[in-house]
Structure formats: C-alpha cells, structure tokens
Amino acid sequence: MSDRPGGAPRRDVELTIDGAAVRVSEGTTILQACRGLKIDTPTLCYLETLTPVNVCRVCVVEVEGSRVLVPACSRPVEPKMVVRTDSERVRLSRKLVLELLASSVDLSLVSDEVKGHMKRYAARPERFGPKAATVAQPPKIDNDLYIRDYSKCILCYKCVEACGKDAQNTFAIAVAGRGFDARISTESGRPLTDSACVYCGNCIGVCPTGALMFKSEYDMRRAGTWDESKQTQTDTICPYCGVGCTLQLRVQENRIVKVTSPLDHDVTNGHLCIKGRFGWQFVQNRTPQEVK
Ligand code: SF4
Ligand code: SF4
Ligand code: FES
Q1: In whole angstroms, what is the distance from residue 246 CA to residue 179 CA?
Q2: Does residue 118 have its Cβ closer than 6 Å to ligand 2?
Q3: What percent of the chain has a predicted confidence (pLDDT) above 70?
Q4: Does residue 70 surpass a pLDDT of 50?
Q5: CA separation for the pair 149, 103 (Å, rounded)
Q6: How wide is the angle at C-alpha 174 spanned by C-alphas 216 and 159, nearest 5°?
Q7: How many whole angstroms separate alpha carbon 147 and alpha carbon 149?
Q8: Does the CB atom of residue 207 touch ligand 1 within 6 A?
Q9: 186 lines ligand 1 (CB under 6 A)
C-alpha cells in the first residue's frame, strides 16, 4: 500500500500494460502508469497542472473489454486492467487525430515532441487535399501584451482552464460555437480590451501551439529577428510582491523577449500575474546612466 498524504492509505492496483505487469497506487491514471514504464504516449490537451478535459483524444489506448478506445490522460487504472498502447487500432486512431488537426490548423510552432509524434505515426495531413477546411484567419492584435492567432488553435481548452477555475478564476474566455465552428472567444467576441481579461498571460503559458504569444515574440518573428539559438534563460524571483514567483527570463541580445514560470513551482504551478509576466520593461528601458 502507498500512503495518501494526510489521509487514508491508498491501495496498490495491479494491471498489465503492453504485456508487462505493473503495480501503481489507486487513482493513478493510465498515462502516469505508462510514463512510469517509459512508454512514450502523445498528449495535446493534457497538462499536469490542469484538470483533464479529454478533448484531443491523441493519448487513446486500448483497454481489454472496453468497446471504445479510452483516453489515457484521465482514465484511472483498475485492478486486472489489460492495456495496449501500441496496437494497430491505437496507432491508426492517433495518426488520424494528428492528421485531422494538421490538415486544418497551422501546427508550424508545435514542440519537437509533437512533430516527432507526427513522424512516428506517419501522419499525412496532405492526403485530405488542398481544399481541406482550415481554421485560417488573421491574428487578433488588440493590445500591446499578447496576440491571439487562432489559425494555430487546436481547441485544447488549456487556455480556458488556466483563465478559469484551474488558475486565474477570471473566466475571460470560453469555447463558443459548435462543431468545426467551435472556437475560443471572449464574451460576445469582444476585443480583449473590452473583455474581463486581466492580462495575466496564464493562457499563453499553457498554449501548446503558439496560438497565444507575447507581442514581443510575435513582432520579432514577423521581423525575422526571433532567434532561439541566441537566447539564454535566467531564473530569478519576481520583485513585485511577497509571493516570490519564479520568473524565467528569456533574453536575446540583452533584451528580455518573454517571461515564463516553471510548471513544477510549488506555489504558482507556472502561473503568474500581469506584473510578473509583462512588467519587465523597466529593466530594459533604462538609460546607460541609470544602469550604472
Ligand atoms: S491573460 Fe489571463 S485573464 Fe486574460 S485571457 Fe489570458 S488567462 Fe484569461
Ligand atoms: S489558444 Fe492555445 S491553449 Fe487555447 S485552446 Fe487554442 S491551442 Fe489550446
Ligand atoms: S491528451 Fe488525453 S485526451 Fe488530450
């Protein structure tokens, strides 16, 4: 048995994953058990710090006795469960999910890990042809802090969760519309400046596709000056209040170009407020005399 901090002991659960006998604590998800076995399981809508919403279905696995494939990211293990993560059915389903997304959404800025999964499952979005429906649209640029380019949005809901009950509790954005028309929107599609947004940028921090981006990064990418090979990261503590959030300053050519915070920070789980996320112009707007 494993101990549950401050509560009743958790039972151990025994199951089989890809033929290997596994023992994990009750409440563990199939994804966590797979990760414990170093089984590479793709995820898009899942993030350790957010409530699973099961919308992308790229993590699906086969569970013996289950009519449909199940999302590994949210399904807890059960005693004597038999899980297959690499069956033909699983591979086909993951490939199709990746192909449908890549045929309709601009995935040019997704992580190398996601690009690796596209290769691993031999995803060929081009097979839907040049007339495949897309979500292409101009970026929304309505403030100086961050832009929203929904032609890169895979509707993973992470931004909605971070803006809502999982972090910020501001509820400035939600999913509007249905089917292919479903989209992330402010109330009545208003500009951010007329919405409830408080510019914490927590939505940018969790966005996996670059749909939400610092305006500084967006401008540099457009000007062709964004160069990650020239960037360094310096960790520091936010000077604005006693919470002491860890800030990761991304610096290029002696200028801060964006700020993130580590997901595994005990207090903030990677979330910040407007001051920590965007309040760094005072560092770089100093004259040489002030720096001395
Ligand atoms: S910046 Fe903060 S308040 Fe504004 S939409 Fe993003 S998460 Fe919500
Ligand atoms: S904007 Fe980003 S975080 Fe929000 S749903 Fe789209 S891809 Fe996900
Ligand atoms: S990562 Fe599991 S459903 Fe999206």
Answers
A1: 39
A2: no
A3: 95
A4: yes
A5: 17
A6: 45
A7: 6
A8: no
A9: no
Burial of 147 per CB tally in 10 Å (0-12, 13-18, 19+)? buried
Q: Considering only CA atoms, which residue is closest to atom 4 of ligand 1?
A: 197
For 143-161, what is each residue's pLDDT tens digit? 999 999 999 999 999 999 9
Specify whether the CB–CB gap between 138 and 148 falls below 8 A. no
Residue 3 reports pLDDT greater than 60: no
Give me the helix-helix angle, 88-104 and 112-120, nearest 10°: 130
* Encoded amino acid at 24, one letter: V
Of the candidates 120, 66, 126, the residue with the CA atom closest to the CA atom of residue 100 = 126
Q: Answer yes or no: is pLDDT of 1 > 50.
A: no
Pocket-testing residue among 152, 156, 168, 183, ligand 2, by greatest number of atoms within 8 A of Cβ = 156
pLDDT of residue 290: 65
Residue 180: per-residue pLDDT: 92
